Amino acid sequence: QLEGNTYSRLDTERLIEFGQVAEGKDAFDTQMILNHKQAIEFLVHSPEQAVVSQDTIVALHALLSDGLMRDPAMCGRIRSRAVEIGGSVYLPVALPQRLEELFGIVVSMAAEIEDPFEQAFFLMVHLPYLQPFEDVNKRVSRLAANIPFIRHNLCPLSFIDVPQQAYVDAMIGVYELNQVDLLRDVFVWAYERSCQQYVAVQQSLVPPDILRLRYRQALGEVIATIVRNGKAATEASVLAVLPSTIQAEDREHFVQLVLKEFEGLHAGNAVRFGLRPLELLGWKSSQ
After folding, report:
1. pLDDT exceeds 70 at position 145
2. 146 falls in which pLDDT band (50, 70, 90)?
């Protein structure tokens, strides 16, 4: 919503959980949400990637900007031309060599900050101010701000109920006055609100299946293999590609886990198993 997306929260949940595109919505909005989902999964499913580094920031941009850039080649690439900020007189650095140098400095400084809240806020201030990419900079900064929270096992930062104008005014304060006071207040309020939401969500969650956690990687590999081989999702096809890492006493439960995942598999969540939507659609049409 901070970026003008018109999906409601309920529409968003349906899109993410069931792959159901909301009626009357622009494809741009749908793509934006799916990009966020993929970028978040990139951080939480691979802890080794959840670090403050140039590679991670660039990867976040590539995921968040997929299908949304005028020039697709600029996804995950530092900009090589000047840009302007809508509604502001601020002009970011334009010289490509200087921009790359400053990008490296900002990320290096952020990586040296030990306090997770200070590190998160530093990224929220400096990435949009520098504007290292042609577009999608603020989205990158808000997700990058979650990296220290993920690494320290803290509540993630979301912006539920944050008024769009409050966030815009806060960023203009950074751009034009180099003042972070308003953005700081938005950041603190948003994090407090996030904690309240997170506690409520945790209380409503079903306890995780320990076996599923133990064999999470193997589960994804088996599902991807069956889909790519064009096989039907049956007990026999699962047993045919069962990894040797599955303990004998866990095999029956593991097979049922795989079959259950297939029941809820759709284009919106196939990325969890490294599958592209087109791969899944091709597999479904062949069954």
Report:
1. yes
2. very high
61 contacts: CB under 8 Å, gap ≥ 6: 75, 76, 133, 136, 140
Domain spans of the chain, in order of start: 9-204, 210-286
DSSP 84: -
Give me the pLDDT at residue 229, please. Answer: 92
Q: Between the CA of residue 287 and those of 219, 220, 276, what are the distances in Å?
A: 21, 20, 17
Token readout for 11 is 């529409």
Long-range interactions of 96-104: CB distance < 8 A, separation 24+: 99/130, 99/132, 102/130, 103/54, 103/78, 103/130, 103/132, 104/54
CA-to-CA distance for 270 and 41, rounded, in angstroms? Answer: 12
**Is the overall model pTM greater than 0.85, yes or no?**
no
CA angle 12, 16, 21 (to 5 degrees): 65
- Give the range among 123-132, 176-185, 212-221 with minimum mean pLDDT: 212-221
Nearest CA to 134 out of 180, 75, 184 is that of: 75
The two three-digit tokens of residue 239, written as one number? 């047993």
CATH superfamily ID and name for 9-204: Fido-like domain (1.10.3290.10)
- Contact yes or no for 104/163 (Cβ under 8 A): no
CA angle 1, 151, 216 (to 5 degrees): 90
Q: Is the dihedral of CA 233, 235, 241, 245 positive or negative?
A: positive
Phi-psi category of residue 136: left, alpha or beta, with phi > 0 → left and psi -120 to 50 → alpha? left
What are the DSSP calls for 188-241, one per residue?
Answer: HHHHHHHHHHHHHHHHHSPPP-HHHHHTHHHHHHHHHHHHHTT----HHHHHHT
Range with top average pLDDT, 65-79, 108-122, 236-250: 108-122
